[in-house]
Amino acid sequence: MNHIINSSYLLNHARKFGYAVPAFNIHNLETIQVVLTIAKELESPVILAGTPGTYSYAGVQQIIAIVESMAAENNQQVVVHLDHHHDFDDIHNKIRAGIRSAMIDGSAMPLKENIAITRKVTELCHYYGCSVEAEIGQLVGQEDDLIIDDVADPYTHPEDARLLVEQTNIDSLAVAIGSAHGLYKSTPKLDYERLQKIAKLVDIPLVLHGASGIPDSDVKKCIELGISKVNVATDLKLSFAETLKSFFLEKPGSTDPREYNQLAKAAMADVVRHKIMTCGSAGRIYSFK
Ligand SMILES: [Zn+2]
């Protein structure tokens, strides 16, 4: 696993120099190929993320093998990340398989329990040189089997964020400032003031989930105010699915996956290129050398 790294160095570098590392949720061979190819083309650091559902669908060893072989061919160092994982043993098994970046999502728990599980997972992860992201506050919407409809107070409280970071030794923190998972019904209103407060109290990189559908200017503002990792899932799924839908409307008789997947890959490549430019991460791998 020479080309799969943890995310600490990348995120701290991004925080120091005022850009963000994009994290793309991948699902299959095609999404991995597109993200790694465009990241290489634009010389951008990149994180490939998968929810528990994605790893069950595509296979942990299989995802790692595809990423490792492609990164070796491209001469890239790549992060493969566990997005929204909850289970200690599941995280442990995936680290043993070669993953070096994990999110422990205890955000649905009361603060004390969130701190306890996050601390336990962080100790495990650091033993293996795996970096850890935790979450505080809750993002409404749906990401795989994680569905959050109605939360009385979904936002991250800055003081809680400070406590969680102080008591757990995590490497990055996902914050809830008004973004959501899945499709937005209207443009979200982000709480910049809250983000600023958290960034002042917390001395580690911050993570924005649910960035699909947030206007570029708003994402850029979040990066200015302390976001160092921007998660993109829905926009990739949409471009993939929409391309296939229009293809089959036009050519219902087609059966060759190489034909329609090629088009879907081109559409996803545009999304990846656009997100990398928005994050300001293009060309950044040069500054690591
Ligand atoms: Zn998320």
From TrEMBL:
UniProt GO MF annotations: tagatose-bisphosphate aldolase activity
EC number: 4.1.2.40
Enzyme class (EC, first level): lyase
InterPro entries: Aldolase_TIM (IPR013785), Class_II_FBP_aldolase (IPR050246), FBA_II (IPR000771)
Superkingdom assignment: Bacteria
Annotated keywords: Lyase
NCBIfam families on file: cbbA, PRK09195.1, PRK12737.1
Protein name: Tagatose-bisphosphate aldolase subunit GatY
Protein encoded by which gene: gatY
